Write the structure tokens for this entry.
Amino acid sequence: MVLHADLRGGALLREALAAHEAAADGLFRGIRHSGARDPHPECLSIPGRGAEGLYADPDFRAGVALLGERGYTYDTWHYHHQNLAFADLARAVPGTTMVLDHFGTPLGVGPYAGQREAIFSQWQRDIEAIARCPNVVAKLGGLAMPDNGFGWNLRDRPASSDELLEAQARYYHHAIACFGPERCLFESNFPVDKRSLPYGVYWNAMKKLAARYSPAEQQAMFHDNAQRIYRL
């Protein structure tokens, strides 16, 4: 179980972690406190609620550090323009394993519509910077949200596995090249991505995408890394 607590909580955070430990009966593995915040929330179907400057907040960083001391992971979700702030956080708290969800969510709607190639180029550089932090692992998925701007949620028919690969395979392969298969794990992001494609179609696309990697690398990304990182 990856649960939530306000990592800025100080003494209250310690109480919250203790309560999670007691309630989860041995299944508690980490905290997800999202940093997602965009200056144009009115343009997003799922606007993030992260506090301004959250990743640089000293109290927040102390909370993230406490997770590492307790043997817990920190999961987060944010937007592409926050990737370098997240890299700063990862460098500042090297003792905590951090899980980057949804590729740092490259946006493609509102003021970001029509900028996919420019955003992708910057995203590539930012992912390289994040991957240089050995305490960060990458969840691969979550690019079929309406806010990613691929438009599949607006169609009468959902996207096919081949359409997903044509539009998004480069994100997956770049992340795997940067982090290495040993620090990547596939995710589904359902039910949110259901607005764009069915669950089975997504996983069929991932099997096709993973075919270029060795059987051992596929085993790591589909199973072993999640088992290790979340102590399953």
